[in-house]
């Protein structure tokens, strides 16, 4: 092992709070180690399964790595910060591993993503006595069996074909069906290179798929943009602040575009308004542990929806950047692939094409643990799910049904809400009659609907656990689903954000990372175009 790699691993472990476990006794005599052999099985298949492992002693990480640990280089800014160890000092194995441990009592943590029950075991090691253990991981829910496949839409790991099976094991150990590996960029450079894009960049094993995308452009003034499902990458170094040109080319390549980090950080709400008003944006990364410990932030999402602009809800971990608590908090908040994910309903087998088509249709919900099921049914038996547009006559009636699923011990549901135009119109809690921490449900009938609206479900569970659907877009006789009560205020808010962008165009600026002023003319033209959209919206809302 190179010295730099050794130092990097030791740094990660020290940050995780471990102290080395010595093979010597208090008298200084070397103790005899014992061989420990562990096998992890899937309860359904009865076969060895990839899993995440963490070994501690007296709340300190044991810095002994089995040869079976699956190692892939990763790190911030594409540096070699980590290999086999994860940020919380866990490691991944394909199903079995062995270690030589000094005598003592150890704690063994096993997990396989959100849908499996986590396990904690105690290992008592005696001198010279080998230990052989088999543990079985069991699901509390199987969403793929229901044709809902999970995606981590925001992973940063560089990749060549050689890394495919290794990263695939990481993905499987978190039970993420689709992992989108994003090449990251900024004004100066790109990071986390991928060897190919589109079909050529895909790698699949059964119901698990690696695919590529990009988080680029990224600016402090307009936010971070992402793209998935495109046939190639798009980068315009000399026209970097014109996000819309990248979005247009991504769409030509069959991909989807969106804003990352809930549009909360790096002033992403500005870019979301500038490009969203002009119909350039498909999605918003609605759930992620990059802002704070609460992963669900809806302010900017509801802003756009209430203006009648549809946005598909996506989510992603932003591994290895976000959620770094070094293993001291709940697993959901650890910097971990799949700690924030979105589920997509796919009719038929999981392939790159069926996945991309389903995401484009908006059949999604985001989650850091809970599971949601939202549907609307009309009196003439039409049924709609998240992402669908449901056009009604004024005499039509609908019934909206929502279910939330959790696990009383691991994902204890607390509240389920039906949201329309940003307001809660139906709510149940786990303490209500007929409800529980494992299952919440509500049914809301609507009489004759006179105006369009968007309908979405959201729920909350334990610390850091939340979920939210893409809306069902209900329209009446071909009209809009905007909110007439909040739209005028949101139009004014859009204008405020556009003025913020204009303030960034004064320059030159001494901060080298602020480059928007160099694109003043082009951005002013785009702001003017967005203002024309706002003028049309004002007229529309004044004369519905």
Blueprint of the fold:
Elements: H1 3-15, E1 34-42, E2 51-57, E3 60-61, E4 91-93, E5 96-101, E6 104-111, E7 119-125, E8 131-137, E9 148-155, H2 164-173, E10 178-185, E11 190-191, E12 203-205, E13 208-219, E14 223-228, H3 243-252, E15 256-259, H4 268-276, E16 283-287, H5 299-306, E17 312-315, E18 341-345, H6 352-360, E19 364-367, E20 371-378, E21 383-384, E22 389-392, E23 398-405, E24 415-420, E25 423-429, E26 439-446, E27 453-460, E28 466-469, E29 472-476, H7 487-504, H8 520-542
Parallel strand pairs: 1-8, 9-10, 10-13, 15-16, 16-17, 22-29
Antiparallel strand pairs: 1-5, 2-3, 2-4, 2-6, 6-7, 9-18, 10-11, 12-13, 13-14, 14-15, 18-19, 19-28, 20-21, 20-23, 23-26, 24-25, 24-27, 27-28, 27-29
Helix pairs in contact: 4-7, 7-8
What would your notes on this structure say?
Keywords: Signal. This is CehA/McbA family metallohydrolase. Residues 1-23 form the signal peptide. It comes from Fibrisoma montanum. The chain is of the alpha+beta class and 544 residues long. It has four domains: 3-137, Immunoglobulin-like, CATH 2.60.40.2190; 141-368, Alpha-Beta Barrel (TIM Barrel), CATH 3.20.20; 372-483, Immunoglobulin-like (Sandwich), CATH 2.60.40.10; 487-542. Helices cover 18% and strands 31% of the residues. The strands form four sheets. The chain has a 17-stranded mixed sheet that branches. Strands 2, 3, 4, 6 and 7 form a five-stranded antiparallel sheet that branches. Strand 9 (148-155), helix 2 (164-173) and strand 10 form a beta-alpha-beta unit. Helix 4 crosses helix 7 and helix 7 (487-504) runs antiparallel to helix 8. The longest helix has 23 residues, at 520-542. The relative contact order is 0.10. Residues 1-29 have low confidence and may be disordered.
């Amino acid at each position: 092992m190179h010295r730099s790699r050794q130092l990097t691993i030791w740094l990660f472990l020290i940050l995780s709070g471990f102290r080395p476990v010595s093979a010597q006794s208090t008298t200084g005599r070397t103790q005899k180690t014992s061989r420990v052999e562990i096998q992890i099985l899937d309860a359904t298949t009865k076969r060895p399964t990839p899993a995440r492992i963490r070994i501690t002693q007296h709340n300190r990480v044991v810095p002994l790595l089995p040869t079976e640990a699956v190692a892939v280089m990763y790190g911030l800014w594409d540096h070699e910060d980590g290999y086999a160890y994860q940020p919380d000092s866990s490691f991944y194995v394909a199903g079995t591993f062995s270690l030589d441990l000094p005598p003592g009592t150890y704690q063994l943590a096993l997990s396989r993503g959100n849908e499996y029950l986590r396990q904690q075991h105690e290992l008592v090691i005696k001198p010279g006595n080998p230990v052989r253990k088999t543990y079985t991981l069991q699901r509390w829910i199987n969403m793929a069996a229901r044709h809902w496949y999970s995606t981590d839409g925001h992973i940063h790991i560089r990749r060549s074909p050689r890394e495919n099976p290794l990263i695939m094991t990481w993905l499987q150990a978190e039970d993420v069906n689709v992992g989108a590996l994003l090449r990251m960029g900024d004004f100066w450079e790109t990071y986390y290179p991928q060897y190919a894009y589109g079909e050529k960049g895909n790698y699949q094993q059964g119901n698990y798929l690696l695919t590529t995308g990009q988080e680029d452009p990224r600016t402090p003034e307009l936010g971070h943009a992402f793209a998935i499902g495109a046939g190639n990458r798009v980068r315009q170094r000399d026209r970097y602040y014109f996000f819309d040109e990248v979005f247009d080319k991504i769409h030509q390549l069959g991909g989807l575009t969106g804003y990352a980090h809930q549009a909360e950080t790096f002033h992403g709400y500005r870019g979301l308004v500038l490009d969203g008003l002009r119909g350039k944006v498909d999605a918003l990364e609605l759930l992620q542990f990059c802002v704070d410990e609460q992963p669900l932030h809806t302010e900017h999402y509801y802003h756009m929806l209430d203006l009648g602009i549809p946005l598909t809800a996506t989510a992603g971990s932003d591994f290895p950047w976000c959620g770094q608590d070094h293993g001291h908090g709940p697993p959901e908040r650890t910097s971990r692939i799949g700690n924030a994910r979105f589920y997509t309903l796919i009719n038929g087998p999981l392939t790159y094409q069926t996945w991309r088509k389903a995401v484009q249709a908006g059949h999604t919900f985001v989650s850091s643990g809970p599971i949601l099921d939202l549907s609307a049914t009309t009196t003439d038996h039409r049924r709609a799910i998240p992402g669908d547009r449901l056009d009604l006559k004024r005499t039509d009636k609908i019934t909206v049904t929502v279910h939330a699923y959790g696990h009383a011990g691991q994902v204890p549901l607390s509240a389920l809400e039906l949201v329309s135009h940003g307001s809660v119109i139906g709510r149940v809690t786990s303490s209500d009659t007929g409800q529980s921490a494992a299952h919440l449900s509500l049914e809301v009938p609507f009489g004759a609907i006179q105006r369009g609206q968007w309908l979405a479900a959201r729920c909350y569970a334990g610390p850091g656990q939340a979920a939210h659907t893409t809306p069902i877009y209900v329209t009446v006789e071909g009209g809009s689903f905007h909110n007439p009560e909040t739209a005028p205020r949101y139009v004014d808010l859009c204008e405020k954000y556009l003025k913020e962008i204009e303030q960034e165009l004064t320059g030159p600026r001494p901060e080298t990372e602020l480059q928007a002023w160099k694109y003043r003319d082009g951005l002013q033209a785009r702001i003017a175009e967005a203002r024309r959209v706002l003028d049309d919206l004002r007229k529309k809302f004044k004369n519905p």
